[in-house]
Amino acid sequence: MPLKVEPLEEPYLNMTPLVDVILNLLIFFMLGTSFAKDERQFDVELPSVSHAEPLTNPPDEIVINVYADGHVVVNQKALSAPELEALLSDARQRYAEQAVLIRGDGKGNYQSIMDVLSVCQQAGLHNYSLATLQKADR
Q1: Domains of the chain and any CATH numbers
Q2: Rounded to whole angstroms, how far apart are CA atoms 29 and 98?
């Protein structure tokens, strides 16, 4: 008696769980990097330099954004010079070696950045850095 032979099914790999995992990882990393950039505002165009060393950011660093029109923003709040000095003096009292990162707009007035440096010195802070971008090799 002849046996009925059924054709074998081709094995296949279910891609749905793989796609789910990849999308979850993508969302996780996109959210993680967006939280790290909260103070790194995009509308400040940093000046370029030909040689720059990488900057290590301590967790307690104060980021001061100086815009092209001269106004100063810290923690997404516009501050006047006396308010900035009060904030920096308070930080200096809490942390003796408080680090400050000054992000000045490259198209702005250099005097605005010098005013912020002067306020840092008046507050007793001497551990400050100026943010720049590396010039592209031509």
Answers
A1: 48-134 (3.30.420.270)
A2: 30
